[in-house]
Structures are given as C-alpha cells and as structure tokens.
Amino acid sequence: MARTGYGRKRVLVTGGAGFLGSHLIDRLLDQGNEVLCVDNLFTGDKRNLDHLVGNPRFEFMRHDVCLPLFVEVDEIYNLACPASPIHYQHDPVQTTKTSVHGAINMLGLAKRLKCPIFQASTSEVYGDPSVHPQTEDYWGNVNPIGIRSCYDEGKRCAETLFFDYHRQHGLEIKVARIFNTYGPRMHPSDGRVVSNFVIQALKGEDITLFGDGQQTRSFCYVDDLIEGFLRLMASPADVTGPINIGNPVEFTIRELAEEVIKQTGSTSKLTFLPLPQDDPKQRQPNIDQARAKLDWEPRVPLAEGLDRTIAYFRELIEA
Ligand code: NAD
Ligand code: UDP
Ligand code: UDP
Q1: Nearest 5°: CA angle at 165, between 159 and 167?
Q2: Residue ID of nearest Cα to ligand 2 atom 18
Q3: 22-55, pLDDT tens digit by residue?
Q4: Residue 190 domain flag
Q5: C-beta of residue 1 within 8 angstroms of C-beta of residue 36
Q6: Is 148 a member of any domain?
C-alpha cells in the first residue's frame, strides 16, 4: 500500500491501550499520522486513551491479536502482550498464545500489506543472564519450563517468527529488545517494581523488597524508550535488530527503594519478602548498537523520571 507521500502514515499499534502503547500513540499522532489501536483490554485501560476521544486521526478497535485481523495500514507496531510478571503469569497459556499466535497473525498481515513491522521484544529473552551487560549476540539463559517461561519463551518464539518471515518472505522487520521501562500510565496494580514502590511510598506502606534487594535492573524513562522505537522504525531496511533499547545505568532494587523514599519524603520502611522463582539477578543493556545505528541514547536520569512518575501516581491516588 502506497504511503501518503507527506510523511503521514496509517499506523497500527497493537496493545495500544497499555502503558507503552498509549505513549507511542501520542507520539505518532503528534507526528501527524493516523493511528489504529487494537487491544483486547486485558491489562490495558481505555482511560490511557481518554484524551484522544474525538481525534479524527485516532481509532480504537477491541480485538484479540490471537485472531486474524484484516485492516489496511502502512506500518505495524506489535506491542500486544501482558508485560508484568503478575499479569503474564495470571493466564500463562494465553500469554504464550498472545506472543506466538499474535506474532503469526500480525506477520501475516504485514506480509499481505508488504509493510514494515515492529516487535516489542524484551530483555527477558536473555533470562537470568551470565553475560553482563547484555549484548544482542548473547543467546540467553532461559528456563523453558518455569513460571516466567510463558513470557520469555513466547517472546523468543516471536523473535524466531519475525526472522523467519524476514528470511522466507522478505518482510521488513524491526525487533526491539526492551529493558525495564517506567513512567506515567504504568498499571497501578501490575506489581512492577517502580509502580509498587512509588505507590507504597506515597501511601506510607512498607516497601516490599523481594530477596535481599541486591538484584539489579536498569530503568528507562518511557519518553526515551518511545524515541528509540520511532528511530528504529525510521531506520534503513537492513536494520532489523534485535536491538537493545533501554537505559544502561544500573541500580540495585534496594537503591531504587531508597531513591523513591528520598524523593517522596515518605516514612515507609523496607520489608523483605521471598524472591520469586527465576527472578534474574542482574540486568543491564549494552546499547552500543542503538547508539551506532539509531544515534539514540536515553536522556532522562532516574531522579527526573521518578519525579514525573511520582507526580502521576500522586494525582491518581488523590483522585
Ligand atoms: P501493558 O500490559 O501496559 O500493555 C500491554 C497491552 O497489550 C495492554 O493494553 C493489553 O490489554 C494488550 N493485550 C494483551 N494481550 C492482548 C491480546 N491477546 N490481544 C490484544 N491486546 C492484548 O504492558 P507494556 O508495559 O505497555 O508493554 C507493552 C509491550 O512491551 C509488551 O509486548 C511487553 O512485553 C513489552 N515490554 C515492556 C517492558 C516494560 O518495561 N514496560 C519491557 C520489555 C518488554
Ligand atoms: N492474517 C491476518 N491478516 C491478514 C493476512 C493474514 O490476520 O491480512 C493471518 C492469517 O489468518 C494467517 C496468519 O496471518 O493465519 C499468517 O499468514 P500467512 O500468510 O503467513 O500464512 P498462511 O495464511 O499461509 O497460513
Ligand atoms: N521487585 C521487588 N519488589 C516489588 C516488585 C518487584 O523487589 O514489589 C523486584 C523483582 O523481584 C525484580 C525487580 O524488582 O527483581 C524488577 O521486577 P519487575 O516485576 O518490575 O520486573 P522484571 O522482574 O520483569 O524485571
């Protein structure tokens, strides 16, 4: 399908009612594109899109990507998939189906339309990594039968499908390996660490550290991440990824808790709970490829991103 020629495109975003999808849609609309959001609202929330009601360039379709989809668009971003451990472990069979059947359907759609397709892959493809920081050529250390496997192996199989459609059918693919991202519109009860700690601190409740809190993560502010998505989609066709997109500044979970307490001025105390099974001990992206191929790197430091995130949750709690 021909593009408009004025840089304006019709863009499909699956999972667009979720945290990352809704921010991506805002940016795509800001650029003048038309956006079709497809979401089954499993973890997403229409309130993330409330501000777009009435925008003639925006359309919402309630649909499960495990089912075929026949629409006409110029570009596809495939984000549909529950992303937090609590949500993806709630119905693990459905999680694998969403990653695998969803990828097959969206790749089939891209094949028919001959359009580029972006996949929201994850640092979880590296599992509990023995190479640190993680580079894209590391194959990972993933348990195939554990409680995180529905997500990790589902996303790994989706990557396989993307690369086979690329090799076999010549599809233009863009595979991003996303590292932990935070910001406004995170689901308040999906149990991810940044939202948990901020909400606990604002309510004066105990901050729940799993294990000894010495495990590490590297947190990327959502606006930085979305800029990386847009640059990857706009990159030359030979830039297929997989490419790490995340913030390489690494913190222990305990350091994160202390920073949240400091910034909220909270009286909350730390409490230690058992570490969930297969919880990765360390995670930090090597982003040399993103720097070289996309001229991209994160700009928002944790303190600044947390400030905006705290403001969002403060308003949500007080509403
Ligand atoms: P989210 O849960 O907020 O959003 C996911 C969206 O997908 C939700 O709106 C949900 O309703 C929708 N969805 C789920 N199953 C679906 C289905 N079968 N059909 C249609 N829609 C469906 O999560 P998020 O943080 O915005 O994550 C978006 C994507 O990015 C996911 O694919 C996730 O795996 C990936 N990712 C996110 C992070 C992160 O830190 N946020 C890290 C790595 C990868
Ligand atoms: N598909 C879709 N929309 C389309 C084209 C295909 O949802 O516009 C689905 C189709 O239902 C199929 C999947 O994508 O199950 C894979 O399509 P492909 O053409 O690769 O495979 P085939 O149809 O040959 O099995
Ligand atoms: N975590 C924690 N307390 C919480 C939620 C999470 O200590 O209330 C830890 C969790 O065990 C993991 C890290 O924080 O080591 C990141 O967890 P999250 O669920 O946000 O993401 P993921 O494990 O998928 O990176």
Answers
A1: 100
A2: 108
A3: 999 999 999 999 999 999 999 999 999 999 999 9
A4: no
A5: no
A6: yes
